[in-house]
Amino acid sequence: MNNIMEIINRRVSIRKFNNKPIAKEVMDDIVLAAMRAATAGNMMMYSIIKVQDKETLKQLSKTCDDQPFIADADTALIFVADLHKWHSYFQLSKVPEYAEKTGRVYTGPTLADCILGVNDALIAAQNATLAAESYGVGNCYIGDIMENIEEHRALLNLPKHVFPATMIVFGHYDHQPQPRPRFEKEFVVFDEKYKKLSDQDISDMFKTHEEKFAKQPVEGFDNYAQQFYNRKIGAVFFEEMNRSLKEIMKDFE
Questions:
Q1: DSSP secondary-structure letter at 20?
Q2: What number is the average pLDDT over the span 131-152?
Q3: Of the candidates 168, 139, 146, which has an alpha carbon nearest to the alpha carbon of residue 65?
Q4: Which alpha helices (H) appear in the chain, and where do they start and end?
Q5: How would CATH label the architecture of 4-180?
Q6: Cβ atoms of 227 and 218 closer than 8 Å
Q7: What is the rounded distance in angstroms from the CA atom of residue 57 to the CA atom of residue 31?
Q8: Nearest Cα to 149, choosing from 138, 159, 137, 139?
Q9: Is 50 exceeded by the pLDDT of residue 1?
Q10: Other residues' Cβ atoms within 10 Å of the Cβ of residue 253
Q11: Could you tell me which of 119, 53, 45 has the C-alpha nearest to residue 83?
Q12: What pTM was estimated for this model as a whole?
């Protein structure tokens, strides 16, 4: 068996898949690995929607910010935060009546449930990526599944209190990119208490990014931060993600 740290250190996002299918038993193991992930109170407040239909993958490639490689994936696993099942169980078991009898009010899924459901879904998703890597199966997270919530609700038949937390696409590949560097540990890991970074610390944290930008400047931007903001935080797709998330949160008000 591969050492877990070797698996973690070599994993990269794969955005170009070949046509080799993933064996059913391998995909079954990837899903089982996800289901063995840590979960709050052993509640498993998520569901996994396995998508292999090519037409559905093609639709997802369009609704998830027009990323063609999604359509080329063998399988997509959509991890949805799912409070619907527990809420249904509570209703069937007369929890609202019990709460009233004991001086409380059952209001249905709350914001805390929502966040814990997202946590559960993402922890399960990470288990799936590591299991895939152990089998040499490429994978890539797709955060854009949080966008276009109305379309995704219709496409995936999502009821109230169920929403996409993330999607991972899987497939075999011919070329594996080199892992990209991460921030230095001193800027990420703090002992005992949070450390507010100084301006100098922030400059040091992004030094490598700024040096790379200086070697290959992009017209219209003074630095890496402006370029990144333009590409990500200030982009149209990010506006849509925020809009969809606000719509999702209405279920938990």
A1: P
A2: 98
A3: 146
A4: 4-10, 24-35, 54-63, 84-92, 95-101, 111-134, 149-156, 199-205, 207-215, 224-231, 236-249
A5: 3-Layer(aba) Sandwich (3.40)
A6: yes
A7: 18
A8: 159
A9: no
A10: 6
A11: 45
A12: 0.96
